[in-house]
Amino acid sequence: MNEPTSIELKRDCSAIQIPAGTGTTLPAGTSVSISQTLGGSYTVQAHGGLFRIAPQDADALGFDVPKPVEAAAIGNVDEKLVWDTLRTCFDPEIPVNIVDLGLVYDMKLTPQSGGGANVDVKMTLTAPGCGMGPAIAGDAQVKLLNLPGVEDAHVEVVWDPPWHHSMITPEGKKILGLE
Questions:
Q1: How far from 124 is each of 83, 154, 156, CA to CA, in Å?
Q2: Whole-angstrom Cα distance, residue 11 to residue 84?
Q3: Residue 161: exposure state from Cβ atoms within 10 A (0-12, 13-18, ≥19)
Q4: How far apart are CA 95 and CA 153, in angstroms?
Q5: What is the pLDDT of residues 89-141, one digit of tens each?
Q6: pTM of the full structure
Q7: Could you say which of 2.30.30, 3.30.460, 2.20.140, 3.40.720 is the CATH number of the domain covering 7-61?
Q8: Topology adopted by domain 79-176
Q9: Helices 133-145 and 79-86 meet at what angle, rounded to 10?
Q10: Where are the domains of the chain?
């Protein structure tokens, strides 16, 4: 990404402190450095810490806010599209998506009478103390709910089995330089 090293926030901006997962407001005029922009959200450094800024607050950074996705059409749910969508979700501290990081343990499609389907995902985090779990799971859920044919989506954070670096896919290991 070719962004300036430091950006001044244009307005007060909601953010989530990393790794605590607590919500806060970064005031207008705060100088931030963008460290990651994967999956549509922004990880920034400010006040000696890391914060996650959601896509709908991109204007506070001086970027265009993504247009809202139109309501999903009812129809057959494409399983590949569900997995590809999960690959657009990232831990804000790690440049690997949650699928290739080995955090998604299970994805189940349940057909519904209207022709669509419900999506249930079981995922974990790299560490039980990570406060970002609700934010990452929420990001995945919102993205899944916007897929054509998805009537409902649930993303549950589980701890069994405990995550281990051996669960990272070959693609994830390549990105992290572990191969």
A1: 16, 14, 8
A2: 33
A3: exposed
A4: 25
A5: 998 889 999 999 999 999 999 998 888 899 999 999 999 888 899 999 999 99
A6: 0.79
A7: 2.30.30
A8: GMP Synthetase; Chain A, domain 3 (3.30.300)
A9: 150
A10: 7-61, 79-176
